[in-house]
Amino acid sequence: MKFGEKLRTARKRKKLTQEELGKIVGVSKRTIVNYESGEIYPKGRAMYTTLARALDLEPSYLLSEDEEFFLGAGDMYGGRGYMQAKRLINQVSAMFAGGELDDDDKLAFVHQIQELYFESKEYSKRFTPDKYKK
Q1: Rounded to whole angstroms, how far apart are CA atoms 98 and 75?
Q2: DSSP designation for 15
Q3: Are 82 and 70 in contact (CB under 8 A)?
Q4: C-alpha to C-alpha distance for 134 and 123, rounded to whole angstroms
Q5: pLDDT tens per residue, the chain (134 residues)?
Q6: Domain locations in the chain?
Q7: CATH no. for 3-62
Q8: Among candidates 92, 46, 27, which has minimal Cα distance to 66?
Q9: Could you give the CA distance from residue 94 to residue 65 in angstroms, rounded to a whole number?
Q10: pTM for this structure?
């Protein structure tokens, strides 16, 4: 189940409208609508935690493995790292659109790609000019 579906299900279970949930967590109704439709995702871990608390959930329930990877890359490397991680997962997913690997093999492959991403980022720090280092 994707983030938007989890959010909608939990909101309805708590008998909250989108507007009510938005007021509780400090965002507009439109933002909640976009979250539930999958058009956008929260930008940081703090919003996942806020939503989870409002809905009596564990924050990890709302985060899929891919979202954890994106946010981890964003925390470590900023917005650019977040976008690179997202693009990487989308490209890897497209490779398997034909369904030639079973789900366990796909998951193992994606985990390896994620590890390689972080390793390559650490390795490339050696070659980054000082003026670009945070």
Answers
A1: 33
A2: T
A3: yes
A4: 16
A5: 678 888 999 999 999 999 999 999 999 999 999 999 988 888 878 898 999 999 998 887 787 666 667 777 877 888 888 888 878 877 777 766 666 667 777 778 878 888 888 888 888 888 878 777 66
A6: 3-62, 65-132
A7: 1.10.260.40
A8: 92
A9: 17
A10: 0.55
